Structures are given as structure tokens and as C-alpha cells.
Amino acid sequence: MKINADVLPHKSFVFEMKDGDAKIRIHVPDGQVNEVGEVTYNDGELIGYTVTIEAFRDTDLNANAVKYIDDGKPTA
After folding, report:
1. Which of 2, 14, 15, 61 has the CA that lies 20 to 30 A from 29?
2. Do 24 and 16 meet the contact criterion of CB atoms below 8 Å apart?
3. Distance between the two ends of the chain, CA-based, in angstroms?
């Protein structure tokens, strides 16, 4: 991993979260990391990376991001 002050490229990002049975997915089709914070190292835990991502408007979607929600409840 290189650490420098280069401007990072635009990329697509997908974030997946879980809260009990509920699942949330956020898709950012055109995003860019514009701030990188501290890295957190703790024994026995995942390494934590703090970043800020700017989401740019996707003209096809007419949105900056799309959120998908599955509440985890079965449907009939």
C-alpha cells in the first residue's frame, strides 16, 4: 500500500450493512474518496479505516446513490 497525497480516482462503491434481520445495501455508482482519516488497530478486532466519499450524480439514475432495504420479514 502506498501512502501519498495523490488525488484518488472516481470508482463505484457498495456498502452492505446488517441490523438484526434487516439488510441494507447502498450503491454509489460514481464516488471518490476525498478524505482519509486515521487507521484504527485493536488486538482481536478488524482494522478500521475512516474515509469520506463524495457521491457524484449519476445522470442515468438521476441520483447520487441508491439504497436497497430488505427488512428480513418473509412475504406471503
Report:
1. 2
2. yes
3. 49
